[in-house]
Fold this protein.
Amino acid sequence: MANLKELALLEERAPGFYGGHSLCAGCGIPPIVRTVLGSIPGPKVAISATGCLEVATTRYPFTAWGVPWIHVAFENAAAVAGGVEAAYRALSRRGALGAEPVTFVAFAGDGGTYDIGLQALSGALERGHRLIYVCYNNEAYMNTGIQRSGATPYAANTTTSPVGSLGRGKSERRKDMTAIVVAHHIPYAAQAAASHWQDLGRKVERAAATDGPSFLNVLATCPPGWGHDAKDSVKLARIAVETHYWPLFEVVEGHYRITHRPLHQRPLEEWLNLQKRFSHLHGERSADLVVRLQQELDEGWSQLQMRDAADAEWFRAQEEAGA
Amino acid sequence: MARVETTSQVLTGAEATAHAMRQIRPDVVPVYPITPQTPIIQTFSRFVADGKTDTVLLQVESEHSAMSAAVGAALAGGRTMTATASQGLALMVEVVYIAAGLRAPVVIAVGNRALSGPINIHGDHSDGMLARDSGALQLYAQDAQEAYDLTVLAPRLAEHPDVMLPVMVGQDGFNVTHSAEPVALLADEEVGEFVGEYRIPNPLLGGEGPSSHGVFAMPDSYFEIRYQLVEAVEAAEHVYDELAAEYARRFGRFLPAIDSYRMEDAQRALLVLGSAAGTAKDVVDDLRGEGERVGLLALRLYRPFPEAALRAAMGGVTRLGVLDRAVSPGAYPPLFSDAHAALSGTGIELRSFVYGLGGRDLSTRALRQVLSELAAPAAARIRYVGLRGEDDDGES
Amino acid sequence: MSGAIGPLRAGGVVLPGDVPRPRTGGWRTGRKPAVDLSRCVNCLVCWIHCPDTAVLQEHAVFQGFNYDLCKGCEICVEVCPADAISMVPEQTELAAGGVLPGTGVLAHGQG
């Protein structure tokens, strides 16, 4: 894995993403994009779904993208990426392009991935395109003003799951999108967070070296959408990992491995208390919601640990075979 | 006009289209099956499986993804074609608009079919009309031969530097897609030479530097970018005329934007799109034999609408019957509306006839009736030809 | 209409050099980051976490802040493991790159 100095040199040589965009102060998305682009050696093409990242980085006639970039619509980033990759195969085959391999990276938010883009993603994964699909997951439709999505956690207050005299925030659980992706039998999938940039960078390198589709579900903090201070972006992502709200793991050919084990599980309150979307969870009246959230986290973590333990032998064998 | 080596085979419109695609050898074909387009991609898939073309064939999971992948592939720098019909075109139409706006020169073969509901798999032009205002160019073939020729011509039109737009090549579902007739195919090399190399400015792959496609435009720039699209669509008429002339010079078949049939001294005429032209020509012949001064105009180019050419083609016509195979409920149907606007101020009386929805047959008897009605004052605002109750011909 | 709208290529294609980058530094609300160079260990953690590429580096050596881009989110202050960065009032006079006076001079990176 490249260290920060190497990443810095890479970005200096071939900047993939410039400042001057209009993403919010403290937005969690740009560090994900920069780490992803910086961790991929060689030329790359970026494909965006409609969303915060797309709108804020390409307001005509400005572009923040230093790599070839295309956006077509909201629900089709994976299909567009598949088309670009197919053209690459066709053009390479007849010698129309240089020998240096090109990497294709799709960026879509949780709306464009978990919900409206799920079908196109499923199709692209099944077809086996060699591309990296990055979901920058800020857990709601932030670009349109914080509406709930399939990635929005239970009990979160959004503009379409508002807290009111009856409403208690979102009444449904978030989807396990990573598991849905894994069910497509793709060679590589992982969950990551920008707070753990080294872990993210290593996963991107692994994805880039994968011959087939890979999927990275990366938690992206959102100051206006989550109601947190801009300065707390990195801290919150770290807390998400350390409360087991957002475990860091990878799935290689269907085999699970936890890539970062927090020394101690931090209390869920640390995660909740920094975000206004959970401010209604303080106090007795909402204790049941917190209990349910905690249960969800604990179940997820224990399931993940079991999978990790069951697959440990497989990874050892892989490493021995590789060494 | 030159005569070139051709081989004649008995082919359906769908098969002929697949042959044209094989000879064009597109880099990428993302496609999803739908009746009555399916035989196009089945035949083409067979060509790919047999190594007859080295196209990367993407069997995608929906027409929406087919068109999305097509835009990605076309702007990446690969020649791209797809095929669809009906609900499939309806599903992809969001992306057809975007393809036009982003100036992605994708060729789309369309087996024109009715739209649901109720669901119906047979021919009409409702699907094409749904994409009428997308900025994609629209060609309509009268028969399998034209489906072939227009498909061969389409990439040049789509990729012309003044155009850079998607082109839909329509052929009536079943009437053309599934009807076999002798089709004269060009030699593979001739097609290869005619279509030439695919080239676009600023491709994602192999371009001179990074380019951003599909950016976000605010009110200060959106209008200008859309106006550019309008200009490109309008420029396509002249480009089509030049290509049709070149095609005729090289291959001996001339397919002008408007097919004018026996319009010399005609007083009454019909205006149609697609396969109805064949039936209409028979009827015109019969009536001419009976001494009636009738003629036919069939549009091959529907978008851009060849307004000046239509006016020029009218000659001494005083009444024009416009046959639409689609409706615009609550208003006049699309072809009529277009023709009415194009001919305003000419003093020509236009009458609206709707026929053939969902595969309802258009008989020669019905067309004779239409032409005879044109000789008399209008009986209805819009005549529904072949509709049960309104017109007994539909039951015959 | 006011202002230029760029070269207007077909389809609204834009290239990175078409227009100057928007100066998002105007988003700051009265405070800006400043660095105490005597504490900086050049770990570049602030650089990777900056959403606006407003932390400058040259050959992997920290070069201070680009105030044209910095939106004042304070993430750099939070993530700095050496407590070298702090927010100061906008009008504070700083040395080149946002260095607190008397704490050192930015060294250029070696290529």
Remarks:
- The longest strand of chain A covers residues 103-109.
- The mean pLDDT of chain A is 97.
- Chain A touches chain B through 47 residues (CB under 8 Å).
- The longest helix of chain A spans residues 287-322.
